[in-house]
Amino acid sequence: MKSSFDKTWDSVYFKKKAINQFPFSDFVSFFFNTFKKNSKLNILEIGCGSGNNLEFLAKLGHNVYGIDASKEIIKIAKKKFLEQNLDGNFTQSEFTKLPYDDNFFDLIIDRASICHTDIQNAKIAINSCNRVLKPGSVMYSTLFTNFNSFKATKIDEGFYKNFVEGFKNIGQLKFYNSFELKELFEKNNFIITKLFLLEKKDMLSTPTDITSEWILHLTKIIK
């Protein structure tokens, strides 16, 4: 099996690019609509980046875990948490090799990380997520759709690199259609409970510039 990690990211992070400072707003809404305030959760983010989504969860008192294959961004995340005196468990590893116990997490976050690898590695990653997630618990995932506008070099069906229009500092990227989502999640013991299309169109551009993501709310099947 080839590596799921695009080493472009280490270079991007070393140059202090593509480092998000704030949590993804839709995930914040999802979290507060899904979980009770008095519950303390074990939460994992795969492809955690600088820990921007985990930071606000740690401040709420949850046990947070972040995994990312980039050595550079894990150093940045650890430093950020240390400076703010926040507890966080950060590990450098690929998300196809999750080093956690079975049935441990109450929530897993994938903020557009799995779509940076090919679909074969994505399936392995989702299977690993299912293993470490508690039965009946939830996963929040976002993936780029096949409706996006861009120019890049095609690697495989829906999979591209060397973007010259539409995306910057992104490395490789897989764009998913709705049928592939079912193949990815439902065959790895997840139920898709919500599927949203988040889309922005620049109506002043010619042709119209489209940025488009799938947002999935998922539940691990109880067997």
Brief digest:
By secondary structure, the protein is an alpha/beta fold. The protein contains 6 helices and 10 strands. The protein is globular.
Overall CATH class = Alpha Beta
Shape: globular
Helices, by number, come to 6
Q: Superfamily at the CATH H level?
A: Vaccinia Virus protein VP39
Could you tell me the number of beta strands? 10
Number of individual domains: 1
What is the CATH T-level topology? Rossmann fold
Distance between the termini: 29 Å
List SSEs in N-to-C order.
HHEHEHEEHEEEEHEE
- Biggest sheet layout: 7 strands, mixed
Regions with pLDDT < 50 over 5+ consecutive residues? none
Helix fraction by DSSP (H/I, runs of at least 4): 25-40%
Strand content: 25-35%
Supply the helix-strand structural class: alpha/beta
Mean pLDDT: 90
Query: Over all CA atoms, what is the radius of gyration?
Result: 17 Å
If classified by CATH, what would the architecture be? 3-Layer(aba) Sandwich
Strand order of the largest sheet: 3-2-1-4-5-10-9
Can you walk me through this structure?
This protein has helices at 8-14, 25-34, 52-59, 71-83, 119-132, 178-185; strands at 42-46, 63-68, 89-92, 105-111, 133-144, 151-156, 159-165, 173-174, 190-202, 209-220. With 223 residues, the chain is α/β, with parallel strands linked by helices. The protein has one domain (8-146, 174-220): Rossmann fold (3-Layer(aba) Sandwich), CATH 3.40.50.150. Strands 3-2-1-4-5-10-9 form a 7-stranded mixed sheet.
